[in-house]
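#structure-requests
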Amino acid sequence: MFSTPRTKAHLGAPQTTVETRKLLPRLPLVRSYGPGLALCAGAAAVSMAINSLFSGASPLVIAIVLGILMTNALRLPAVLAPGLDFSAKKLLRWGIVFLGLALALADIFALGAPMLLVIVAIVAGGILGTVLLGTALKMRRAQVLLIACGFSICGAAAVAGAEGVVDSEEEDVVTAVALVVIFGSLMIPFIPLLGQALGMSAELNGMWAGASIHEIAQVVAAGGIIGGGALGAAVIVKLARVLMLAPVMAVLSVRQRRAGYGKPGEKRPPIVPMFILGFLAMVLLRSTLVIPADVLHAGSLLQTSLLSAAMFALGCGVKIRSLIKVGARPFILAAASTVLVTGISWVGIELVHP
């Protein structure tokens, strides 16, 4: 590939340094991942710009809708595939890591032991009930687990977490994320209206939104609709659910290892995935140190950027025709899981705050 040193000296060509040799293998990676990553970055920027103009519009939801519209309206070139896949997996997990900066344990503990027990019951009951319903519907175990975690914990981030420890197919992940978007978006107006019809105060209605709606962004939107002190209460309860991501992933990983799922010779998943450990480290960092507001704002911006780029990439995997082909059972399970989680959260809140 290269000339001999003598020929180089004769031609006056530059010597190949160690730094140059290290750089050369990276160039194909840039060419491979660059186009898809650039598209995801652009979509994230557009989503966040729309959010800055219309604060009620979640950049994550906007990003995934943009991805769905683009992939179903256009024929995306194959050159985008590596970058899109990288965004949907790696960037999403980095976004989960920085999500930990939004959680302060003092705020979570301020909810009180009874409400924390209700949140544990929501997550545990939602996952167990959804798994039982999925088994009754004779659906694939991995697909059921992804839907159960997404609907019971924190939407697409929980789907990504579960995907890292269960033996799932790409179609399962895309379907679960699409269902989170569809049913979570339907809950944004539903919970405020139903809470008002039930005579709930703004704060309790906000807590119900945080305890039952799937995505953090969807919770924020619902809290804004309710008004009063609902938004703060909704976000704190939702973040307490997000904190359940770590123990649930650990339990799933242990069960996966014991059950021996996976391909022969494949390395078993870690008991706690590295990105979940990173998430916990960020939670502890936020809870034990006084972090300047500017740093927290930068972390929030980075988290939103990463998750928006990842949501767009996931949206690009949602083919409407393929979603129709999966049949009615995932939609039935998603609807049932939504009702289950909403019901458990309402009963729990009524018991704690009669």
